[in-house]
Amino acid sequence: MTPTELKARTKTFALxxxxxxxxxxxxxxxxRVIMKQILRSATSVAANYRASCRARSQAExxxxxxxxxxxxxxxxxxxxxxxxxxxxxxxxxxxxxxxANELTxxxxxxxxxxxxx
Length: 117
Prior knowledge:
The chain is an all-alpha fold. It has helices at residues 3-21, 29-53, 58-84, 90-115. The two termini are 20 Å apart. The relative contact order is 0.15. The mean pLDDT is 95.
């Protein structure tokens, strides 16, 4: 996957999360708190991946990719919490959770390769 394709994929992921966030029941306080967190982490995946593509050094790239990996994994956690708390049904979040996990794996692999580990 090229950097351009991965930029598009992370941006699409963020947009899908934004769309999903509009389906959280309005009166659910826990849902609102989790959605604020998930919106922050999912959009951070896209923003930080873009920043990593403009890294000025290998060390900066590795650092940014670590941040992207962490944010993708955090997004997966928030999606799991939405399901396990009963706020949203698993069938509505399964594809997003799969994408969060795939992005986490891609970023971890890329970071490890770039760092020479």
